[in-house]
Amino acid sequence: MKRIFFIILSAMLLTSCVLEKAQPPAPVTPVEPIEKKEPSVEPSEKILQPPKIQSTNWNGIVQPLVEQMVKANGLEAGRLLLIDSVKNNTNGVLQNLKATDAVIGAVSSKQVFNVVPKSQVYTARKALGLSSEDSLGLRSKSIGLARYLNADYVLYSEVSGNNSQRVIEMQLMLVQTGEILWSGRGDVN
């Protein structure tokens, strides 16, 4: 029975195969390339210029504030100070790194505090999982970072307002208690 079934199945398979005759290849006719013309581009709209970043004289802004800070009562000279990055609480773009560098430079030039080096701050931020571009920095984060670095003081700075009228506010805090020892503010032009 199996042989008969196999023979019938083989016969059906073989009858379904159709032999194809060899067809001659299709004729090939050469075509000359068509010259492409570049489409003329006419500006449909005027291209807008990106907004210009305002150049700010951060040294001139933070210098008077640092002068006031170093004259504040109750400060012990030679102590370790963490200068946290300047926070941007404006509705625009702020050059945080330039502002922070200006604050570090102004404080360092007074030689009242020992400033925590930037490399140590960077390493500590990385260890604690804090981004250096964190615009939502809180005072508690700054104090926590200062405690991690064994700093005595922390200088917290933030710029607020809108692009036409910005204000920088700086606060010097005692790390051990979180007490604000000095506070100052100035216009950012």
Tell me what you see in this structure:
A hairpin with a 2-residue loop joins β4 (153-162) and β5. This protein has a domain at 58-187: ABC-type transport auxiliary lipoprotein component (Rossmann fold, 3-Layer(aba) Sandwich). The mean pLDDT is 83. Strands 1, 2, 3, 4, 5 and 6 form a six-stranded mixed beta sheet that branches. Helix content is 34%, strand content 21%. The chain is an alpha/beta fold and 189 residues long.
Quick take:
It contains 5 helices and 6 strands. It is of the alpha/beta class and 189 residues long. The chain has a domain at 58-187: ABC-type transport auxiliary lipoprotein component (Rossmann fold, 3-Layer(aba) Sandwich), CATH 3.40.50.10610.
List the helices and strands and how they pair.
Blueprint (H helix, E strand, L loop, with lengths): L1 H15 L41 H13 L9 E4 L3 E4 L5 H15 L3 E2 L2 H11 L10 H10 L4 E10 L2 E10 L5 E9 L1
Parallel strand pairs: 1-3, 1-4, 2-4
Antiparallel strand pairs: 4-5, 5-6
Helix pairs in contact: 2-3
- The string of secondary-structure elements, in order, is HHEEHEHHEEE
What shape does the CA trace take?
elongated
Q: How much helical structure, as a percent, in the residues?
A: 25-40%
Q: Would you identify the CATH H-level superfamily of the domain at 58-187?
A: ABC-type transport auxiliary lipoprotein component
Main sheet: strands, sense, barrel: 6 strands, mixed
What is the tally of beta strands? 6
* Percent of residues in beta strands: 15-25%
Mean pLDDT across every amino acid position = 83
Low-confidence stretches: none
Rg estimate, integer Å: 37 Å
| CATH top-level class of the domain at 58-187 | Alpha Beta
